[in-house]
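Protein modeling request. Please complete all fields; requests missing the sequence field cannot be processed.
Requester role: graduate student
Desired output: 3D structure, token encoding
Chains: 1
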Amino acid sequence: MSRPALPDPDPVALADLDRKALHAALHERVAAAWRLCREVHPGLPLPAVWCDLRGKCAGQAHFGRGGLRFNPVLYAENRLAFLVEVVPHEMAHWLVHHLEEGHLTRPHGREWQTVMRELFGLVPRTTHRFDTGRASPAPHRYTCDCREHAFSARRHALVRQGRRYRCRHCAQTLVYLGMGVFENSI
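Delivered output (186 residues):
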């Protein structure tokens, strides 16, 4: 495999950036990836960029909104890897979608993998390896006979609507304890 098409950012300089400069660095990286994509698809529109994605997902190509969404918590905690891996990953989705028949392709199919390998010079990985602990808080505490469980606000709302969950280990129905910080979370 050839070396990556986009030069790696300076990790020392990246570590010292404040929130505003970090946001600017993300926009610059998206623009650099877009310019590279335009070499093979000159009509590719420039995607808008938002840092409004929450949860465990690092990035998302959002065709309905016309741009790319990124998780600001995961970006701040994984600056170099985010710019090197996540931005090209999402830009590859953006490029493939805008190719003729691109909207019919599988999200991580052959076309996307080819863009990752041939254009960006990266191994086509479908998932990131970031710690999502702070990006995906689960403040709602539930218990069973063997442990405590952390539920996100979305899963907790489903329980409030009548859905029941059982522990995978002891098979007991989980009982709500309230919100709080976990001492021994799993």
